């Protein structure tokens, strides 16, 4: 329908933060460079495990993880974080060696990164993906001369809890992997029962519903079927009605806009908020060249963002 000339613009919803004092302190704490070293720090820094085939490890996985986390939070290179931590150890009078940039690069391929999570009970999940550039021309050259074949991206798939912003699952893939293909791998990282699951229309695939029902049979799925969608299982059959078909029937009856409002689908936008936070804090590029190392880099960023989230998040409310 053509837009009415005299139509009044819809007023923008206003929100206010009710815990601004605590949230302000959390934002300041994110930039703190204060380091605490435990009494057994030396035992957790130098490798003392089983011998490896070939050259032996000098440092534990924890030491490598600390170095890579500092690198991502403070936007340093491998050489830069090596010098940064060396200077910290000198000021703190810690007589320990520091992994060099080559060690960080090699160990980063196989490093296991575990997301710090506080949520232990059933939860809600919002899911989305975004692109991260790994190499190619800059934005200005692309605008002036067009996109080159060498311009390459990776896709970061994330599942987050909309209640507190905590990232629950992460998967980095090549840019030709669709959103629905990543769902099974993401759900495999979530142990808790999922109550509500929200995602955009790109996830309206049978494999997504099958994976969700296998993970949490009672899950409430909020995925808007596409505009040309059809009923998968008609109501006159004896089989159980599909949750996806019920959503489509509600949309046909009340309209897509009303369905989104009544179902609570708009919580899905918090997945985009998670992506925005990741790119604002860490940037939209990956500096590593190998997919394995890029995966570690993405996981380290998500783990660091979870730690920042645990420091404090805003509690907002709608202004009447």
Structural account:
This protein is of the alpha/beta class. The protein contains twelve helices and seven strands. 41% of the residues lie in helices and 14% in strands. Strand 5 (194-198), helix 8 (206-215) and strand 6 form a beta-alpha-beta unit. Helix 7 runs parallel beside helix 8 and helix 9 (243-254) crosses helix 10 (256-263). It is globular, with a radius of gyration of 23 Å.
What's the β-strand tally? 7
Uncertain runs with pLDDT below 50, 5 residues or more?
Answer: none
User: What is the N-to-C succession of helices and strands?
Assistant: EHHHHHEHEEHEHEHHHHE
Count of discrete structural domains = 2
Strand numbers in spatial order across the main sheet: 4-3-2-5-6
Instruction: Indicate the overall shape.
Output: globular
**What is the alpha-carbon Rg in Å?**
23 Å
Assign the structural class, choosing from mainly alpha, mainly beta, alpha/beta, alpha+beta, or little secondary structure: alpha/beta
**Main beta-sheet strand count, sense and barrel state:** 5 strands, mixed
- The CA-CA distance between the termini, in Å, is 31 Å
Identify the notable features of this structure and list them briefly.
single chain; 320 residues; alpha/beta; 2 domains; five-stranded mixed sheet; two-stranded antiparallel sheet; globular
């Amino acid at each position: 329908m053509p837009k009415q000339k005299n139509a009044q613009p819809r007023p923008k919803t206003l929100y206010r933060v009710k815990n601004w004092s605590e949230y302000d302190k959390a934002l300041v704490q994110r930039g703190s460079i204060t380091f605490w070293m435990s009494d057994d720090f030396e035992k957790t820094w130098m490798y003392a495990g089983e011998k490896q085939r070939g050259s032996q490890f000098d440092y534990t996985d924890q030491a490598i993880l600390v170095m890579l986390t500092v690198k991502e939070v403070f936007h340093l290179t491998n050489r830069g974080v090596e010098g940064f931590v060396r200077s910290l150890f000198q000021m703190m009078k810690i007589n320990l060696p520091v992994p060099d940039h080559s060690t960080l690069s090699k160990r980063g391929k196989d490093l296991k990164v575990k997301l710090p999570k506080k949520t232990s009970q059933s939860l809600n999940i919002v899911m989305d993906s975004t692109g991260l550039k790994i190499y190619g021309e800059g934005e200005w050259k692309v605008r002036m001369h067009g996109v080159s074949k060498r311009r390459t991206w990776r896709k970061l798939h994330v599942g987050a809890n909309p209640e507190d912003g905590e990232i629950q699952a992460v998967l980095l893939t090549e840019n030709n992997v669709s959103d629905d293909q990543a769902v099974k791998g993401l759900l495999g990282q979530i142990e808790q029962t999922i109550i509500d699951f929200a995602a955009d229309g790109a996830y309206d695939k049978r494999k997504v519903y099958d994976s969700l029902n296998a993970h949490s049979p009672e899950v409430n799925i909020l995925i808007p079927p596409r505009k040309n969608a059809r009923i998968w299982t008609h109501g006159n059959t004896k089989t159980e009605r599909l949750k996806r078909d019920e959503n489509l029937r509600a949309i046909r009856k009340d309209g897509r806009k009303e369905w989104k409002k009544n179902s609570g689908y708009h919580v899905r936008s918090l997945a985009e908020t998670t992506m925005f936070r990741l790119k604002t804090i860490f940037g939209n590029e990956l500096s590593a060249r190998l997919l394995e190392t890029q995966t570690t880099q993405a996981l380290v960023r998500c783990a660091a963002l979870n730690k920042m989230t645990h420091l404090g998040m805003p509690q907002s409310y709608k202004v009447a």
